[in-house]
Model the fold of this input.
Amino acid sequence: MRKQMVQPATSPLLKDLSEGAALGRFIRKGIRTKAG
Done:
């Protein structure tokens, strides 16, 4: 994560996207462990 290179205007959006992706991965991993 290069926060220095991200422009202030787009920073919140990219932060939300990266957090959403991480959350999605975490949820999928949880579902996979529960199902498997």
